[in-house]
Amino acid sequence: EFYEKPTSIRKRKAAAAVKRHLKKVQRENQRRVRLY
Predict the structure, then answer these.
(1) CA 16 to chain centre
(2) Distance between CA 28 and CA 34 in Å, rounded?
(3) Distance between CA 20 and CA 31 in Å, rounded?
(4) CA 27 to chain centre
(5) CA 7 distance to own-chain centroid
(6) Around 4, how many Cα atoms within 13 Å sit in the side-chain half-sphere?
(7) What is the mean pLDDT of the chain?
(8) pLDDT number for residue 26
(9) What is the C-alpha separation between 19 and 17, in angstroms, rounded?
(10) pLDDT (tens digit, 9 = 90+) per residue, 5-21?
């Protein structure tokens, strides 16, 4: 178990959050595209 800098932890958490958010956005976009 090596020590990780707080900044790198924050970056990793932010990246995970972005991925999760993008998935959600893609689902919403697909729904919208079908309506047009």
Answers:
(1) 5
(2) 10
(3) 17
(4) 13
(5) 17
(6) 9
(7) 83
(8) 84
(9) 5
(10) 889 889 999 999 999 99
What does pTM read for this prediction?
Answer: 0.53
Separation between Cα atoms, residue 10 and residue 18, nearest integer Å: 12
DSSP secondary structure string for all residues of 1-36 = -----HHHHHHHHHHHHHHHHHHHHHHHHHHHHHH-
Tell me the CA distances in angstroms from 28 to 3, 8, 9, 24, 32, one per residue in order. 39, 30, 29, 6, 6
Q: From CA 36, how far away is CA 24, in angstroms rounded?
A: 19
